[in-house]
Amino acid sequence: MKIAIGCDHGGIVLKPTVKKVLENNGIDIIDMGCEDTKSVDYPDYALTVAEAVSKGEVDRGIILCGTGIGISIAANKVKGVRAAVCHDLFTAQMCAQHNDANILAMGGRVISEELAGQMVQVWLDTPFEGGRHNGRVAKISEIESKYFK
Hints:
Layout: E1 2-7, H1 15-24, E2 28-31, H2 42-54, E3 60-65, H3 69-75, E4 83-85, H4 89-97, E5 103-107, H5 113-125, H6 132-147
Parallel strand pairs: 1-2, 1-3, 3-5, 4-5
């Protein structure tokens, strides 16, 4: 499995922990920045990760900003992306299990490094349930098709 990771200055605090969890799972990591706490614009990093997921260059993505909100909004503008901002283990599990989220978004100013690592592990370990959720995810794709030509 190959996962792209991107963050802004507000999410960089979580990046080392996230990368460690991915490495411990034998996952290939594509680090798309940023590299320090210098102020940068989160949409730039959301776009690079989201495009890599959308084009199939990576299997999934993880994006980090101060809250996870802005970076997830930007990522969700890319066709085929289902980025979910999560703040606890339950939402990390449900976004994988029910929504087949292909990008996990978290906030470095909202959650601890320990919780971020646990959330990444839960997200990785939780398979998409399918069943009744297939139709719901398909409806998301139908909405995309209406607005993304």
